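User: My collaborator sent over this chain with a note saying "see what the structure looks like." That's all I know about it. Can you take a look?
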Amino acid sequence: MLDMDGYEAAKQIRISHPSIPIVAQTAFNFTKEDKNMVELFDDCLIKPILPEFLLNTLAKFFIYNSTQD
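Assistant: Without extra context I'll predict from the sequence alone. Here is the result:
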């Protein structure tokens, strides 16, 4: 992205569409103390992304679970 980084993009998405889950993708590990990551992103995938982690993350946010009713 030429005009903004991932943090700024996440801020804009939070403002315009607050209910959309945002999953970061990064090569860097982060801790729960990283305020930007915790506040802006619902989850994070760390490279290299293993298929099982990708599928679990997608399922967590995008697959309807009837037990949540």
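A starting point for your reply to your collaborator: DSSP finds three helices and two strands in the chain.
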